[in-house]
Amino acid sequence: MNKKANIITLFVFVGIIALLSVLFVFKKDESFSEQENRDLQTLPKITSETLFNGTYSKQINSYFADQFPLRDFFVGMKGTSELAMLKGENNGVLFGDDGYLAVRSFSVLDDNGKLTNPTDYYSEKVLSAHFKGLKKLQSNLNAQEIEFAVIIPPRTIDLATWKLNFPSDNSLELQSFIGEGLKDINYIDIFPMLKEKFENDEYVYYRTDHHYTSLGAYYTYCEVMRQYCMEDDIIPLSDFEVKVVSEEFYGTTWSKAGFKFVEPDQICYFDYKNSDEVSEYTTIKDGVSFKGFYDFLLLDTKDKYSFFIGGISKLTTITKTSGNEVGTRPKMLLAKDSFGLSLVPFLALHFDLEIVNVADEEIKFLSNIATKKNCDYVLVVYNTENLISTKYIAAFH
Amino acid sequence: MVFSSLIFLFAFLPITLLLYFATPFKSLKYKNFILFTVSLVFYGWGEPKYIIIMLFSILTAYIFGFYIGKYRDIDKKKARMYLVISLLLNLAFLLFFKYANFFLDNIAVLPFLSGIKQIANLTLPIGISFYTFQIMSYSIDLYRGETETQRSFVAFGAYVVLFPQLIAGPIVRYRDIDDMLIDRKETVDKFASGAVRFCAGLAKKVILADSAAAVVEYFRTANEFKPSVLGTWTIVLAYTFQIYFDFSGYSDMAIGLGRIIGFEFLENFDFPYISRSITEFWRRWHISLSTWFKEYVYIPLGGNRKGLWMQYRNIAIVWLLTGFWHGAAWNFVIWGAYFGVILMVEKTFLLKVLDKLPRFVGHIYTVILIMFGWLIFSSTSLSQIWLYSKLMIGINATFTTTTVTYDFVRLLPLFVVCIIASTPFAKRSYDWLIAKYSSAAYLNPLLTSSSLLLCTAYMVDSTFSPFLYYIF
Question: What distance separates the 2 farthest-apart alpha carbons in chain B?
């Protein structure tokens, strides 16, 4: 028995516990995690009810985890250790070549409409219900001579399987199932196009976030224009000036992954100046108006993607307020999830926009809204992850 | 509260150690009182209402203990009566909370009783299966004259509610620690070895068992969409690791914590997966439970001393009870019966056959039977056992999908670590190293602190995962 070693063991054991406990006591609670982009559990209040039904002990457990000293360090330590065990992923996020991160598994709706634990698969029944909703929507809109189209942006995992050394057949199956199910309607299948660009090493999807980049959004915009037979109006890439606004974008996937060593992404926007006119656009986001399409203040927060039109809102309208064609441009109703945000600056060069969220309760009467607002076009942008894990689209009337 | 939670490690434990060691009061009475109190807090953390049931059980056994002790030498009959009352009162709680709804469910199958409903909101008090058995061991040992009446309520209470083993064992027999309740010494060496043991157990639970649990959950979900043979085998394999590291990790932590405060508990696991027969497996798995049943059921029934048929009967009774102890559901009964039958077959001839065959045959035979046992154990219904058995042999399933193969390959390193950690190899090498080079003992503080920090990292970044045996 080595007495000295035992004394050291005793001291490191007691020392680590004492040190972290003391740090915990003296550390100020935070209500929000920048790195993870989520609210943290603050000290729960004891009531006799929460104490006796067990809620209190659950909350206090989250409180300890969320407010733990050096939390970001420990989260990173766990991520690194998972990679060291050769698991290749952490919290369901794959770590691929060039620091590409992708969520591989999602909680999806199963055949009974219940959310599953994270999985690679999806329910065909759920998707078929969505297809039916979209078909109904298209026939309603076409009856009113409103042009309709839908985009289902793929997930990073669908494009990047080869960078992630992950089998691609689930992704291909899912994308072709969607393509097949929507072949009778105006479905803009951007998957093959994006996949090709991605494989040519174009920066079309962020490495640390689940969205497409401004470049990916530009290509998507081109497809939309083609689908609406407005090919001649497409503004060529070379006419834009690319402006980098952040080199420090740590996206949603990065927050989830815990791979703290992964380099951040770059956010840029495509600025278009037509030499023939002095144009100006006004965005009204839930009643607050500003010039242009971007909220530069949000670049100082973690949620930098919200820079595009200021992020999600209940209703955003964008109109051209000076320049040619003011007041005579076609009007588009855009029902979208967050993938719509970075697409808007391109669409707004051609359309006056009414922008709503697919996930809002009232949106299920989308064709009524389109009529009421005198829209000429309706575009639905709803990404693959949301499609397999929510019910909204199937509820379209 | 569970050990693998931040609140235990960084609030409960430091406060407990502070109250226990860093006070001017050094008497054992004070220390037992502290243990008794903090253990009640530990127990009541999730569901404080059940403290009352536990205290009532303790009080009953404590009071009847005086009568059993008083009469055991002068009036055996009276002593016996008090023993029976005491046991029945204790068992009543266990039977009611654990088995009432199961019983009602099953008699409701009868046509004329179909109106019978479950008792609403009846949840199992945590650890009741463990502490009831501990309390019973006191009453029985006392009656048998193997221990003396405990006159201090605090000392007896501390024995039952001692937080290291309260909620998931080991099931400590009273007579194994009765001396330590009145006289024990905490030393630097014991503290250090307890800390090492605790951190080893914590790593088993947080790093291995929880990883395996995630595999089980992941593949189960995948199986609902695309059932595959390899996927199903992976579920059973991962569950085999999960339950072992979960439970033996818990026992390690309990033994380690006990040592820190001066107690020595008996071992509860002895590398069960290296067994060469199921008979051997049950000598190595959850030893404290097997010992309890052997001591208080099997031997009193006559054990193997009354002929072969009586021995079979006794094995059958013990194993049905063992199954039933694990839970009030048919899969546990079947699980118990399954092992009962295998043990009888082994006793009859198979052990002799296995002895003559090469060693690896015994290992394979045992591992497969154990894995199938865990399949029964982990199933929520009989149809699930049937479904998974069919999947394992490839009925209505593809052999594998690309994703399953991908995950299986990706998880191989984890499985290899689990396999090595299931054998005495690592422990023996480590012991050998320390015996050979005395300076290797400095690995202890190094490994202990890194494992503690790493486990903290896993706990900070994890959803809460309670112990499997927590529910029994």
Answer: 74
